[in-house]
Write a structure and sequence with these properties.
The protein has 14 helices and 13 strands. The strands form four sheets. Strands 3, 4, 5, 6, 10, 11 and 13 form a seven-stranded mixed β-sheet that branches. The chain has a two-stranded antiparallel ribbon with strand order 1-2. By secondary structure, it is α/β, with parallel strands linked by helices. This is LysR family transcriptional regulator. One of its GO terms (molecular function) is DNA-binding transcription factor activity.
Length: about 325
């Protein structure tokens, strides 16, 4: 609880200068002159001086010693400048990362991928593509398998990666690997302590933590349990694999997740695989592209790379087909 002698500092955004101010401070430190820093930043000297004084008031410390010969940093200003440099560098890194996710018009390859593939397989494929084609600019669109298929159909993505039962309508594709869905639960759950298998009917009747409709995981599970009474209404319905996994690890309830996603949690004992009788939860991983338009250039290169890399912890190399 805040004591009577403490003042509420307010939101962080009110206490940390904006990036423009920090960049101006770095320019003053580098050039040794507020006037030269103003010219480099494209602002007038009075405007730059006003901005620096406003930043000093905001921080509550003097940053510059001003004289006719120029401006020099105070001791506090030197320390603040070092911190500012880290913030500006982090912002530049943030911008570079986000740029890779943008649907940029100048991208040479636009890729859409289901959440599981985007998180656990695509980074390795893109690293290999960068080695093979270092000049290729790639933009990434992530979503569930239904959204990925739609983006490829509309031309928003050149190449897509989906999970599920069959080839999405209106697309051509190739199987690049196979995956297995696992029923998992936290160690304290009754299923994790049970000897023997859990029946498919019990799984179907139990509210589970699940991915949303349209995801490849949900499609496979719906199909596999249709003959056993169909899925009960979900305990939780979440739109990312990471969120589902976190909820399962917390003990909220059992879930169904890709083998790709839970290897670390199973090894560490944070989740337990629950064997299920009378149901198979395998699925195919597919690359998809617009019908009649076989991938060329960087898209073809990426497709080739996916076929040479493992997609399952149990496979040394993926089986392919299509």
């Amino acid at each position: 609880m805040q004591s009577a002698h403490e003042a509420d500092p307010g939101p962080l955004s009110h206490r940390v200068p904006d990036l423009g101010g920090l960049q101006l401070l770095l320019a003053v430190a580098r050039l040794g002159s507020l006037g030269r820093a103003a010219r480099e930043s494209g602002v007038s000297q009075p405007a730059a001086s006003s901005r620096m004084r406003a930043m000093e008031r905001q921080l509550g410390v003097a940053l510059l010693e001003r004289s006719p010969r120029g401006s020099r940093l105070t001791e506090a200003g030197t320390l603040v400048t070092d911190w500012a440099r880290r913030i500006v560098e982090a912002a530049e890194g943030f911008d570079a990362g986000v740029q890779a996710l943008r649907d940029r018009r100048d991208s040479r390859l636009s890729v859409a991928a289901s959440m599981t593939i985007a998180e656990y397989l695509l980074p390795g494929w893109l690293i290999a593509l960068r080695t093979a084609r270092p000049g290729t600019a790639v933009s990434l669109l992530a979503g569930n398998s239904a959204a990925v298929a739609e983006r490829v159909r509309t031309g928003e993505a050149d190449l897509g990666f989906v999970e599920g039962i069959g080839l999405p309508t209106g697309l051509d594709g190739a199987v690049i690997g196979r995956d297995r869905l696992l029923v998992v639960a936290a160690p304290g759950h009754a299923w994790a302590r049970r000897r023997g298998q859990v029946g498919a009917e019990e799984v179907a009747a139990t509210p589970l933590i699940l991915r949303e409709q349209g995801s490849g995981t949900r499609q496979v599970l719906d199909d596999a349990l249709a003959a056993h009474g169909g899925l009960a209404p979900p305990l939780l319905e979440l739109s990312s694999t990471t969120a589902v996994k976190s909820a399962a690890v917390s003990g909220a309830g059992p879930s169904v997740l890709s083998e790709l996603a839970v290897g670390e949690e199973l090894s560490a004992g944070r989740l337990v695989e629950v064997p299920v009788a009378d149901v198979r939860l395998g699925r195919e991983l597919r690359a998809v592209w617009p019908r009649g338009a076989r991938p060329t250039g960087p898209a073809r290169e990426l497709l080739t790379l996916t076929r040479g890399r493992p997609t399952s912890p149990r496979d040394a190399s993926p089986r392919t087909g299509g």
